[in-house]
Amino acid sequence: MAMNIISKEKKEIKWLGLPTNSLQEFQALEAEKQRRLERIKQKTQQLQELVLQQIAFKSLVGLVFYLRVHDKLLKNLFSTFFL
What we know:
Layout: E1 6-9, E2 12-15, H1 22-82
Antiparallel strand pairs: 1-2
């Protein structure tokens, strides 16, 4: 209570922890910030890769659809002219 190690509210006692050095706490927070920023950077790169994959997949699906439609049209066209 006096050193902010524990707090007491009515009959409930909570552990707050031992006092820390402000510099140590700042350095720990900075290290955590750097880890999180690096993770965000990695996730952003992964997301960009997934978006590119999705675009390529949609293009491929569109190409397959286009080829199927045109293949059917060409077959119908040739069958009407050469039969």
